Amino acid sequence: MWNTHVGRKKSTNYEESKREKGSIFSEFFQMFFGETNNNEEKVEKNKSKKVQIKGENIETEIKVSIQDAFYGVEKKITLRTLNGKMKNFQVKIPSGIRNGEKIRLMGQGKPGENGGKPGDLLIKIIIENDTKYTLQGIDLYTNLYLSPWEAALGTKVNLSSIDEEVSLYIPQGMQSGETLRINGKGYHNGKAGRGDLIAKVQIMVPKVMTKQEKELFTKLQEISKYNPRIKNVAQE
Length: 236
Hints:
Elements: H1 2-33, H2 36-48, E1 58-65, H3 66-71, E2 73-80, E3 86-93, E4 102-105, E5 121-128, E6 134-136, E7 139-146, H4 148-153, E8 155-160, E9 165-170, E10 179-182, E11 197-203, H5 211-223
Parallel strand pairs: 1-5, 7-11
Antiparallel strand pairs: 2-3, 4-5, 6-7, 8-9, 10-11
């Protein structure tokens, strides 16, 4: 009986040793290759879990007048959506917006993927010059029209800036093409200040004259020695 007992114990020790070796081998395999079952589960989870992607932005541009950009305005624009339908947007253009600046409408761009947020709509503002004003940076340029006698004798005139009339002194001998600068009457500078208004002188001659005007111009022609095509002519 003793021998039989010993035989069973050896068999038990062998099986325990086998299991221990198997356990060590399993731990060694997992150390270098990971757990096969867990990896498969992670791959399946990654496949099922989709990354949220934000939609692309859409860019467009609109044109506004200098007056609208100076005072601010609300404009309605219509754009074609991806499904071909037309959609209206109300765009509030703030006072003093700069040329080329963009307004962002959040969430009005292309839709996102996998539950991602939609993109934005970016609207570039193009400020258009008109017949009265030209915008260069924060300065406004305009024309100042003078008669020949106003330019020759000097005078005082009223000039319309974008928001009010200003009084302007014209010195004697003003030449066509010369400029006069009125400080602080230009476009917004974005810091509660303004650029300048620059008036370019344009001397205008009447196309239609009365008989008396014509006589006076004729008399002036006879008595004047001034010749604009000759520089530094001494005048009496």
